[in-house]
Design brief:
heterodimer, A: about 260 residues, alpha/beta, Rossmann fold
């Protein structure tokens, strides 16, 4: 079995700063259910990691721990070299500015227009007051996801794909260094899924972001990943490039790739 | 296989009380820390106050008419028909107006806040706000609780006025009483000790409506069914709190002003 902690990372980072997220022995339980049993992960600068796994194996719980929405029971979780569980509320808030999080549903604030959704982090987090600067940044973010025409629409007037793109624009508007994608293509048709995957790649190139992408979409995994991790029952069981894992003999890994030509 | 741990009901009850106390302190801490969300506060005042005015007005008007129609035969039988304006004024301003209006507001406002925040939780909007580094308590909770605390007393005053006007119309139609005579009798029978304690308790009613709505919405589970449960639970709990606050307020007022 290709254990993640046994495989290791082939290209060792040159310095500590090259690793933006370092997770070691992460454990998390909900009541009697051990959701995360032993998570080990290193995300390097400008790297895209795709995490594959069956529903309920703890993929989303891992990224929720990274942004401090959930607190781990044991193990170490360092982002930019700082232990997340030891951060004060103020430090956590500062950290969250550097991490973008794209939710499965897009999570647009449905009482606000797309423009107001994008203005929200600029005025509340970056504390921008110059309306011309705000407008410029909103329009630039929407343009980079190809959604400028929907700037004054309400989220209820947008399609699923448009909502995801608007959510992505809201995520990138504060120039995060890391983006965590929670099933970015779920519920979308194949064409829109491909567009979103393209967008993820172009954002990585344009903004030099590091990303963890949780998905069930193998096409998205193929297009967007530098490295793929397979998660099963609360731990990573395999790690490698998409093509390496495609050739794997491991039964669980092979099950994910069986429909891939 | 591990045995399922069953948390005793009393422990859950205490956990719930602890959560509410924590939520209460978080609300107060967030009023004074960080920037106040004025635009959202004004929007909520409009949504909560202005948009409830029609419902409060119609209900109060009907209550005024119904009270006169119901009280009249009894007072006439005792030869005290002239006491009708006074009876209506004192009972409406002291008790019936504030409580009925607060219950109406609990039904309309607490449920809408509970459902709105509950659905924001289900659709991960609360998490999105939290992970973006913004403060959902400051933006959503502080503004809503302060808006209900300001608006419910205002609605109550407006409702009192409309209810008394409804009473006048009923009396005018039955006994041909002039507005001047009715107005003189109503104003003459009301004292500050009738109005001020009633006004103060509506501030607490408003706070309870906002607080319960926000708490239930914020703490709903992540499922579509939870939105309905949060809205329903917000109405029931807020209504119960209104009666508890009313009972305490009546006792306090009685001790301070009427003994």
């Amino acid at each position: 079995m290709e254990k993640a902690n046994e495989v290791g990372i082939k290209d060792k980072p040159k310095s500590r700063e090259d690793v933006v997220i370092a997770i070691k022995g992460l454990k998390k339980s909900f009541g009697e259910k051990n959701v995360l049993k032993n998570i080990n992960l290193q995300l390097k600068r400008s790297e895209n990691i795709v995490v594959l796994g069956r529903s309920g194996t703890g993929k989303s719980v891992t990224i929720q721990c990274i942004v401090g929405l959930l607190r781990q029971d044991a193990g170490s979780l360092k982002v930019f070299g700082e232990e997340v569980s030891e951060m004060s509320d103020k430090e956590l808030k500062q950290l969250r500015i550097k991490i973008g999080f794209l939710f499965q549903s897009g999570a647009l604030y449905d009482s606000m227009t797309v423009r107001e959704n994008l203005e929200f982090p600029l005025t509340r987090i970056l504390k921008l007051t110059d309306q011309a600067e705000i407008n410029k940044r909103v329009e630039a973010a929407l343009e980079s996801v190809g959604l400028l025409e929907a700037i004054d629409k309400m989220p209820s007037d947008l399609s699923g794909g448009m909502r995801k793109r608007a959510g992505l624009a809201r995520t990138i508007i504060v120039n995060p260094e890391i983006i965590l994608y929670d099933e970015p293509t779920t519920g979308l048709d194949p064409i829109t899924s491909r567009e979103i995957s393209d967008l993820i790649l172009s954002i990585q190139k344009k903004y030099k972001t590091s990303s963890i992408i949780i998905t069930h979409d193998m096409e998205c995994a193929r297009m967007a990943s530098d490295r793929v991790l397979i998660m099963n029952e609360g731990e990573y069981i395999a790690e490698g490039s998409f093509d390496e894992l495609h050739k794997s003999n491991n039964k669980i890994v092979a099950a994910f790739f069986k429909d891939i030509a | 296989m591990a045995e399922q741990v069953v948390i005793p009901g009393w422990k859950k009850w205490f956990e719930n009380i602890g959560d509410q106390v924590w939520f209460f302190f978080k609300f107060f801490r967030n009023i004074f820390t960080g920037g106040f969300e004025w635009s959202e506060f004004v929007r909520q005042c409009y949504e909560i106050g202005y948009r409830s005015m029609m419902l409060v007005g119609i209900t109060s008007f009907i209550m005024g008419v119904v009270l006169i129609v119901q009280l009249r035969p009894t007072l006439v039988a005792f030869g005290a028909a002239s006491m009708l304006p006074r009876t209506l004024a004192v009972s409406f301003v002291r008790e019936i107006g504030p409580v009925i209006i607060a219950i109406i507001c609990a039904g309309k406002i607490a449920s809408s806040i509970g459902a709105e925040l509950g659905s924001m939780k289900v659709t991960e909007q609360l998490d999105a706000m939290e992970v973006s580094g913004a403060n959902p308590t400051q933006y959503l909770v502080v503004t809503r609780i302060l808006a209900t605390t300001f608006m419910v007393p205002l609605l109550s005053v407006i409702g009192d006025a409309i209810g008394l006007f409804g009473g006048f119309l009923a009396l005018n139609l039955r006994d041909n009483m002039s507005f001047q005579l009715y107005f003189t009798k109503v104003i003459g029978s009301l004292e500050f000790t009738d109005f001020i304690p009633a006004f103060i308790k509506t501030i607490f009613f408003g706070f309870a409506i906002g607080f319960v709505g926000c708490y239930k919405g914020f703490n709903s589970n992540k499922g579509t069914e939870s939105v309905g449960i949060a809205a329903n639970s917000a109405v029931v709990t807020a209504s119960l709190w209104i009666f508890v606050i009313d009972a305490i307020a009546v006792q306090a007022t009685s001790l301070l002003f009427y003994n």
